[in-house]
Amino acid sequence: MPGKTDKEACLFSEANVRKIETDYEDWHKNRLREEDRQLDGKYFTPSGIPVKLIYSPADIKDIRYSEDVGFSGQPPFVRGVYPNMYRGRLFTVRQLAGLGAPEDCNQRVKYLLKHGATGINILFDLPTIRGYDSDDPEAEGNVGYCGAAVDSIDDMDTFFADIDLGSISTSIVTHLPSTSLVIPGMYFGVAEKRGTPLQKLAGTCQNDFIMETCVGSAPEILPPPVSFKMQCDVIEWIVKHAPRWNPVSYNGYNLREAGTDAVTEVGVAIANAIATAEELINRGLKIDDFAPRMSFFWDLHNDFFEEIAKCRASRKVWYKLMTERFGARNENSMRMRFHVQTAGVTLTATEPLNNIVRSGIQGLAAVLGGCQSLHIDSYDEAYSAPTEEAALVSIRTQQIIQQETGVVNTVDPLAGSYYVESLTEEMTHRIFQFIQKIEDMGGLVTAVENGWLHREISKYNHTHQKQIETGERKVVGVNYMKAESEAACPIEVFEYPETYSRQKARLEKLRKTRNKEKVKSCLEELRAKCHSGDNLFPYCLEAVKNHATLGEIEEAFREEFGLWSFPLMG
Amino acid sequence: MERRIRVVMAKLGLDIHWRGVLLVSQFLKDAGMEVIYIGNKFPEQIVEAAIEEDADVVGVSTLSGNHLTLGPKVVELLKAQGMETVKVFMGGVIPPNHIPILKGKGIHEVFGPDTPMQTIIDGIKTAILGTDPPTG
Predict the structure, then answer these.
(1) I need a surface site. Which of A35, A135, A258, A511 has the fewest CB within 10 A?
(2) Where along chain B do its domains lie?
(3) What's the average model confidence in pLDDT over A279-306?
């Protein structure tokens, strides 16, 4: 926080501020009506930050421009991570793709690239996300829905058929650390087979233990300390071997979707990054060996200015932690880069076309917040994974922001807004407070193990829903200006019911044709390494290259590490 | 005294989106029902729990596309156990054209996103107690 002593560095002179404060008192007393004044203290952002009727220089009187805001591409990076921001390179249009079998996804990826997507974000079906092969009984009913089925390195090859892996940037949405040990390895293995060196590969895998233990609850979960250790294994191996790859994307997004406010979203993600940094430093790495490759993933909700302030504040918090706590020297360690997805939970099934507007506004906030890449949700997502038509509207929305609105022509255009700067300061303060709270509890792994974070999510959801039920929080078409008839929606749903049989046949063939002895010895070695404390990535990579399936590797983890029960709230 | 309705709530199969199911569980509890949340389960386990808990209602939640394969199975297995009086409700992201199919296979009601909690509570009460909820 700004010190009281260096008033000279502040934006406004003390005399000016005093005058403004007097003017404000006068305005408040004489211009406002009594009923206006009674509303003082009654407005809040969704994170609970009080919102005043009007903001003035007096609200940001302690801000010192050079230290607290500065220019883009320089400390504290509030205004953006690169000096030229979107003039240098527009944010990446990174839409999710993933449905059906690998060959279906290959078609969708080509479709998106053809229409101007500049990066890809590949999403898997739930059996793949949870580490089950398509023919596992646990996979029943979920194969190829909500994402693509990928069981082996051969599926990954099909997924990216005719696409040059050296020339695209691919985000692999692996969610869990345990599958991040395996699926990126399939991608790396395919690249190697095609003669593309790992050094050339650009991309990201998600790899977040919060996803495994808090957000994506499922019947079988690895214990938090195991999942956290795997998260660190993936980062450690990848920063050494695939230097352009982001081995982690701290996923505030899905936590927010599960039910938290903006402060918790960012606070948990950064607390996770702190825990990781400490672990990797314990393993002998230096902060600048890996911090430049840590990336983040935010959820941009409806409250326009709070979301923009969140983006700005998160960069500042990161900068301060990296320099003051970890002593980073490389500026790339201090630049918080993040991907944004618009908020799926804000989409309504009622009047789905309204979702185009919601997502468009959230996408605009992301760009004003200085994101590096963006996925804009599609209007039909309250019904199914996006159809081609809806996915195209999302890409077009991004292109309209890029090419027609002019917002990308100047850096951080909301800087200097009394409200936005004041919110940014307050968010920064609250994120630090939240991180401190987690540390006082014994760190993030503990806060997950003892169920604290789960309870927080549950409480938030209950309160939030109550506000919708009572009408205190308005949702257009749902509890405000309610749609009169629930007319049948013209949305066509994407379906690939044949995925299951195709994947099943493929797995049968794979199991007959691969070198069984080799697979067996790879899996045995991996099992042994589960108890040695070694980094598991190279052993998974070897198994994958020898055609071990995702499910076989994950089964080894489940058996070797045992399972943890999700601490559900009553 | 009004009889307490017993509800077994589950996430269907591997689906990981648990926000809705826990929220509905809490609101049903607040409305005076006995709610047993059993987590991620497959139809066989859901029916086992329904028998064990002597449930009036089974609520299954899914947002990941397994509703057509796994949903009707719950109804069939209940029938096979002579438990056809147990009403099965479904909630989640369900394409509109799938709702008639599900109802045709014995799912009592399907609640999509945006459904007010009161609608769910009233729907269950009407189905079990056979009375219309008080209006106004």
Answers:
(1) A35
(2) 6-55+73-94+105-128
(3) 97
Angle at A174 between CA A172 and CA A177, to 5 degrees: 130
Q: Which fold has domain B6-55+73-94+105-128?
A: Rossmann fold (3.40.50)
Interface confidence, given as ipTM, is 0.79
The Cβ of residue A489 has, within 10 Å, a number of other Cβ atoms equal to: 18
Interval A42-61: pLDDT, tens: 999 999 999 999 999 999 99
pLDDT value at position A486?
A: 57
Partner-chain residue, chosen from A126, A127, A478, that has the shortest CB–CB distance to B114: A478
Q: How far apart are CA A351 and CA A489, in angstroms?
A: 8
- Cβ atoms of A260 and A459 within 8 Å: the answer is no
Nearest to A101 by CA among A153, A163, A156: A156
Q: What is the mean pLDDT of residues A512-531?
A: 98
Written as six digits, the tokens of A57 are 């220089």
Residue A488 has pLDDT above 60, yes or no: no
Nearest-angstrom CA–CA distance, A366 and A402: 12
Global pTM reads 0.91
Bridge partners, A294 (sequence order): A248
Determine the distance in angstroms separating the CA of A299 from the nearest CA of chain B, rounded to an integer.
Answer: 16
Of the partner residues B12, B16, B26, the one whose CB lies closest to the CB of residue A216 = B16
Helices (H) and strands (E) in chain A, counts: 24, 9
Instruction: Give the C-alpha separation, A88 to A109, whole Å.
Output: 25
* Shared domain check, A61 and A102: no
Query: Measured between CB atoms, which of A142, A217, A475 is closest to B18?
Result: A217
CA–CA gap between residue A178 and residue A4 (Å, rounded): 49
Using the Cβ of B117 and the Cβ atoms of chain A, whether some distance falls under 8 Å is answered with yes
User: How far B128 CA sits from the closest chain A CA (Å)?
Assistant: 23
Regarding whether A285 and A227 lie in a shared domain, the answer is: yes
Chain A residue nearest residue B29, CA to CA: A570
| pLDDT surpassing 70 at residue A489 | no
Q: What is the mean pLDDT of chain A?
A: 92
A495: pLDDT strictly greater than 70 = no
- Cβ <8 Å between B118 and A126: no
Assess if residue A360 is contained within a domain: yes
Instruction: Report the domain count for chain A.
Output: 2
> Is B70 near chain A, with CB under 8 Å?
yes
Asked if B114's CB is within 8 angstroms of A348's CB, the reply is yes
- Shortest CA distance from A457: residue in chain B: B19
pLDDT above 90: residue B15 = no
Q: Which domain holds residue A24?
A: 7-68
pLDDT tens across A444-454, in order? 999 999 989 98
Residue A551 domain flag: no
Q: Is B92 on the interface with A (CB under 8 A)?
A: no
Q: What is the pLDDT of residue A364?
A: 98
Q: What DSSP letter does each residue of A50-94 carry, written as one string?
A: B--S---GGGGTT-BIIIII--TTSTT-TT-SSSSHHHHSPPEEE
The strands making up A92-97's β-sheet, listed across from edge to edge, are: A245-246, A202-205, A169-172, A119-122, A92-97, A373-375, A337-342, A294-300, A248-251
Q: Is B113 on the interface with A (CB under 8 A)?
A: yes
Chain A residues with beta carbon closer than 8 angstroms to that of B14 = 126-127, 130, 132, 138-139, 142, 218-219
- Cα nearest neighbour of B17 on chain A: A216
Whether residue B14 and residue A382 make contact (CB cut-off 8 A), yes or no, is no
